[in-house]
Amino acid sequence: MKPVILDVDTGLDDACALLLAARHPELDLKAVTCAGGNVGLDDVVLNTLTVLDAAGRPDVPVARGAAVPLIQPVRMARHVHGADGLGDLDWPRSTRATDPRHAVELLRDVLREAAATGELITLIPLAPLTNIALLLRTYPDAAAGLREIVFMGGAAGIGNATASAEFNIWTDPEAAAIVLAAAGELGVPMTMYGLDVFYDVVVTLEQARALSGSQSAELAQKLIEKRCERYEADGASIGDGGAVCAVIDPSGLTTQPFPVRVELSGSWSRGRTIVDTRDWSADLTSDPHGQAPSTIQVATAVDGKRYAEMWL
Ligand code: BDR
Ligand code: CA
């Protein structure tokens, strides 16, 4: 089994990711950490506990993390995910308590233990990267417990929060820059599961409505229905769920190594991931002025059908 941690801002599609990570037989979900993003932190935490309850996984520790981005004010996406972040479903809410540790401390502890045992963790951030930046700046030694980071965020092509920027990176660009730098500074292998593939893992309404027989199947069905409603379509992407599929079966994802930077200024481009796809971009990694971008794996294509079937 592959040990994984999810960092989430649950969110309808984070919920799709949680259900898969909690129930797939090849994953060992060690912990879930929460950050403000799609909705405020209190709602994110409650949604996360609720989804894990539905998945039959009250054993997974869930920790509260950063409520707001490092520098800029919080901006949410209730227009996409509903007022409560979970589509305002008529669904019983969890009464379970969170882990007493801050998300950064929970991450630190699980990663240090992984470094000690050699059972390295795949970290799957699906939210603004605030918690992960705080972790890497506060406890850089914890990176020794990481096998890799596969994060949902960014885009080589167009954005969604703005024409330039994807929501998770746009929400906390400074945190994203810190995490990307860690790929180079701390040698953490990293994959960017961005908007170039994010919308391509689609579950149809018909497929979703055929799900039954368990609480998680019922919730999965409702999540897709809500996303279809939002996009006025008869199918919807599982969004963040695709990043979990990519960890389970990396052969369904095409990636290419590219230098990536985060735009931290710019009037209309703040939060954009600048993916340098030029032929000679590899030369830039030896920049003598210490300004070299980190080269990471960027997802450029996905076998959407295969991942949708896996999720179903
Ligand atoms: C990302 O932003 C959030 O709204 C989704 O949960 C996903 O993580 C897509 O840009
Ligand atoms: Ca998310």
TrEMBL record:
Residues 4-308 form the Inosine/uridine-preferring nucleoside hydrolase domain. InterPro entries: Inosine/uridine_hydrolase_dom, IUNH, Ribo_hydro-like. Keywords: Glycosidase, Hydrolase. One of its GO terms (biological process) is purine nucleoside catabolic process. GO terms for cellular component: cytosol. GO terms for molecular function: purine nucleosidase activity. PANTHER family: INOSINE-URIDINE PREFERRING NUCLEOSIDE HYDROLASE, URIDINE NUCLEOSIDASE. This is Pyrimidine-specific ribonucleoside hydrolase. It comes from Kribbella kalugense.
